[in-house]
Amino acid sequence: MSGAFRSLQMRSVGALRRNVLRTSSLGGIRTKKTTTVLVTSNKTTPEDIVNECQKIRESIQALNDRYKGPLEKSSQKNTVLPFVFLLGNHSSGKSSFVNYVCDRKVQTAGVAPTDDMFTIIVPGPADVDRDGPSLIGDPDMGFSGLRAYGPALIHHTKLKVRSNIRMQNFMLVDSPGMIDSPMVRDQYGASRHAAMDRGYDFEGVCRWFSERADVILLFFDPDKPGTTGETLSILTNSLVGTDHKLHIVLNKADQFRKIHDFARAYGSLCWNLSKVIQRKDLPRVYTMCLPKGYRDGTIENTLLSSGDAAKGGNTGNDSPLQGALVDLEETLGEVVREVFNAPKRRVDNEITRLTDSISLLQMHMKIVDDLVKQYRQSTWNVRLALAAALTGSSGAIGTSVYLMLPMEATAAIAATTLGSTGLLWFFQNKRLLEQAKQLAGDDAMVASYKRLYAKKANDKDEFMTALWSRVHDHLIVGLTAEDLKSMDKVKTVDVKELERVQEYDIPNLRRKAAPAFAKSLNDPNDEAAATIAALTKGSDASR
């Protein structure tokens, strides 16, 4: 495995850092300035970077399987195209937005819930529909991991291939509208009685999609501004750690007839969000609406020129907020641009997802190694106790023979000592089993984490706390006493392989994906350099 990592590391050296000494004269004083210039290989394409991420994930899968890690085997497969994941209450405008982006009717829109399916919309040469078993069973589409959520989900998933749609290099995933159905949760946060709600773990499925999505849109509408229990539980349990690609949208804002109605709905949404987003500054809420003329069919869908659509489509005096509609539809243009940027975000999201996987596996291996070491230490203590008992038994029998005690006495001594050793072996094995069960329990895992990460815990490292929450959830379910008894200690070479990926390969991938922004100070086109030169000339002239 180390050879594969080493060769991958050699291929990853596509970005070099050069320290270039530049000499400038400022106020008559000659100084040396060091500029960091980022030189990126021109031959590296986004597809190459994604493929390198894929190879690294495949190489760490063996470590994950060996140590019962938290990474799903199916999670290593990329979806065939980048995709945008749409979530929201029913009648929040998700389907209408899908039709707007596609520039043709793909989904059925309505006030009441119109669809209970997860719908994957893909560009193609002809209109084709495929059911859930065909989609999830296709090894090339990248949705095979959904099979773990059961047949109810599989039969509530479908694929729509559509021709003549504006999007050509990414997919849309439309989800069922969320309703007010609070779930009962156990002490570890796992949802229960999911079958009473939808027949499958809706939160888990949303988490699966959100982890792999390149852009996430969470829709709210004026009638239900964040008040449904399912919406808030999705924010709390399924969208954790996706802030960098999550966009919250208050849709249909043109339905307000009075300004205080808008203020009340917006305030209600922010109030509900503040209960689940535990920080002072809330994320931006995109307040938007589709062009009225587009909904009426009187103007053409201009997509990214939504401001023009607003000017042409929302004319008339039927709303006191008429003047604000242009701004709302310009915000629509911003949201649409985020959607069409999904392919560009795929590279960064893949590297981020790889980094997250490495961090999860590292912490998991460290905790497991500590628990295995504790169990092995108990095993050695038992072996030493048995060895001492056997030695004592042999000594007692030998002494009786040496003293030429009667045969009956020697036999009684042998039976007593061997019987005592047997009982000791029985009780020690029972103690070992209890020890394994205890180490596979919650208290031992938490104690191990606090001991290994004491400094970071005292420093209130939020990243480690969030990481531990995810690792802990997996350990509680995935690690058993039998696993501890049969598992080997974590090898040093495996730890070093992960450290090498995190310290070398991932930074190199980041450098490859980074935009070229560094310029030489001597570049005449550099505005800052030109300003410095002008100031220098002025200083010299004054002298």
Could you describe the 3D structure shown?
This protein is of the alpha/beta class and 543 residues long. 53% of the residues lie in helices and 13% in strands. The protein is built from 19 helices and twelve strands. It has helices at 2-11, 46-66, 94-102, 132-137, 151-154, 202-212, 229-237, 259-276, 292-296, 306-313, 325-340, 342-402, 407-439, 442-452, 454-458, 462-478, 481-486, 492-513, 527-542, and strands at 15-26, 29-40, 83-88, 118-123, 128-131, 157-162, 171-174, 184-185, 191-192, 215-220, 246-250, 285-287. Strands 5-6-4-7-3-10-11-12 form an eight-stranded mixed sheet, sandwiched between helices. It has a two-stranded antiparallel ribbon with strand order 1-2. Strand 8 (184-185) and strand 9 form a beta hairpin. Helix 10 (306-313) runs antiparallel to helix 11. The longest helix has 61 residues, at 342-402. The radius of gyration is 32 Å and the shape is elongated. Residues 1-42, 182-196 and 304-317 have low confidence and may be disordered.
